[in-house]
Amino acid sequence: MSGATTIDAFASRIKGGEGGLISAWIGIPDPLFVNHLAQEAFDAIVLDMQHGIWDIGSAAVGIGQGRLAGKPVLARIPVGDFASASRLLDAGASGIIAPMINSASDAEAFAKATKYPPLGERSWGPTLAMNHTGLSAADYLATANEQTVTIAMIETRAALDAADEIMRVDGIDGIFVGPSDLSIALSSGAKLAPDTAEVDGVLKHLIARCRAHSKFACVFGSNGERAGELLKMGFDFVIAGADTQQLRSGAASAIAAARRVQAG
Ligand code: 3PY
Ligand code: MG
Known about the structure:
Layout: H1 10-15, E1 21-26, H2 31-37, E2 44-48, H3 56-68, E3 73-76, H4 82-90, E4 95-98, H5 104-114, H6 127-133, H7 137-147, E5 149-154, H8 157-161, H9 163-168, E6 174-177, H10 179-186, H11 197-212, E7 216-221, H12 224-233, E8 237-240, H13 243-263
Parallel strand pairs: 1-2, 1-8, 2-3, 3-4, 4-5, 5-6, 6-7, 7-8
Helix pairs in contact: 2-3, 4-5
């Protein structure tokens, strides 16, 4: 192989069982947000295209901003948008997170879009990814399936029932649990309660199933403390709150500090 030989080190870190990884989660569709958050000690950055406002163009530039700061950037696609999954990999994303994967056939369709043959049917065209990595076309083709990660979200009752079949799909590298949707599903729509003992029981079960299938386990944590608990529970990769929440809590704590000093 000539030149660079890896897309980045992220896939081997997470698949190798390093664990303890913390990622930023960004929904505000400005690549400069990625630039700023990438300066912090995050192991990765996720662009949320499901509930965040990114479009494919802004996400492609966001991926570049993350890479400029030496950070792998993953994207969460909108539900079922597997066409965007391969476009984001073409733009240099290190992995794709797909929400609401509820069956083995959902997982197979997702893997098809993100893995080259023989594993899947990803179509050729990783122009930006090759620019970012410095890999030749031949080297990119030879390594992309291993060096980008395909992550299925488990966050419904159907997905819980099908978790083993989803994890058994070859092109699925890991799972990502959505505790908010899971709590809504478990309560049949009665409550949003992602940080409860009931949800924790399901999370522990899913970590054990991931270990049994040699897949890595990721999860959304609503803040830093919750992220720490989830890492202790055994998750390999956690979110420590979203950009909007971190921005607002930073602002709230600055205002509170100013008022405390003013009054003192
Ligand atoms: C969930 O908790 O449902 C998620 O999708 C994470 O944001
Ligand atoms: Mg969700």
